[in-house]
Write a structure and sequence with these properties.
Low-confidence stretches: none
Structural class: mainly alpha
Radius of gyration: 19 Å
Mean pLDDT: 94
CATH topology of the largest domain: Endonuclease III, domain 1
Number of domains: 2
Number of strands: 0
Shape: globular
Helix content: 55-70%
Length: about 210
């Protein structure tokens, strides 16, 4: 049984959404290496996409248009990072990411293949500015892990609420239990629940016009 058949059997309402949308086209990976994905994730925290992209453009300019290596990043003075537009807290987080990459705590993509989801979450959440949600996004979108269910994500919980006609979003702990029915394809379930939230937003926008 493939992922879509399994999810449709586990949750009939999700199955109807899958039938409506069809197979999802996975977006192209922006980054393949965990170090680069974490740098980008911290840069985008609490910022609109356009502002984050501008800051990242300045940051890359410090390394001739490429993502600075961990060694290059550690050699940069705080003033250089602040000039890019990073706050003091984000500058310290970026430096901590670089330090953990140099020490080997942040694995390469090849090394990550030998580590479980739980091991990667445990290793990476010790880094300043990197929480479980950030690592889960890395696991889903960079490392393409198939069984990640980000129960703290607003969009995933909102999609489930809408799909099942609930008055409010499920709380993270009971939602994790609900999500067990989707295993071992919880990442795919999350992708469809995001779609459910996005479709509802588009419908509200259309009605408002």
């Amino acid at each position: 049984m493939n992922a879509l058949s399994h999810l449709a059997k586990a949750d009939k309402k999700l199955g109807r959404l899958i039938a409506q949308i069809g197979p999802l086209k996975r977006r192209k990976r922006e980054f393949t290496e965990p170090y680069e994905a974490l740098i980008s994730a911290v840069a985008h925290q609490q910022l609109h996409g356009k502002a984050a992209m501008t800051i990242m453009g300045r940051f890359r300019a410090l390394a001739d248009g490429n993502m600075p290596t961990p060694e290059q990043l550690l050699a940069l003075p705080d003033e250089a990072l602040r000039a890019c537009g990073f706050s003091g807290a984000k500058a310290r987080a970026l430096q901590d990411i670089a330090a953990h990459a140099v020490s080997g705590i942040i694995p390469s993509a090849a090394q990550a293949k030998k580590l479980s989801d739980a091991e990667l979450i445990k290793r990476l959440t010790v880094i300043r500015g990197v929480g479980q949600w950030t690592v889960e996004m890395l696991l889903i979108f960079t490392l393409r892990r198939p069984d990640i269910f980000p129960v703290d994500d607003f969009g995933v919980r909102e999609g489930y609420k809408i799909l099942h006609g609930l008055d409010e979003q499920p709380k993270p702990k009971p939602f994790a239990i609900i999500g067990e029915a989707y295993a071992p394809y919880r990442s795919t379930a999350a992708l469809y629940l995001w779609q459910a939230a996005d479709l509802a937003k588009l419908q509200r926008s259309a009605k408002a016009k």
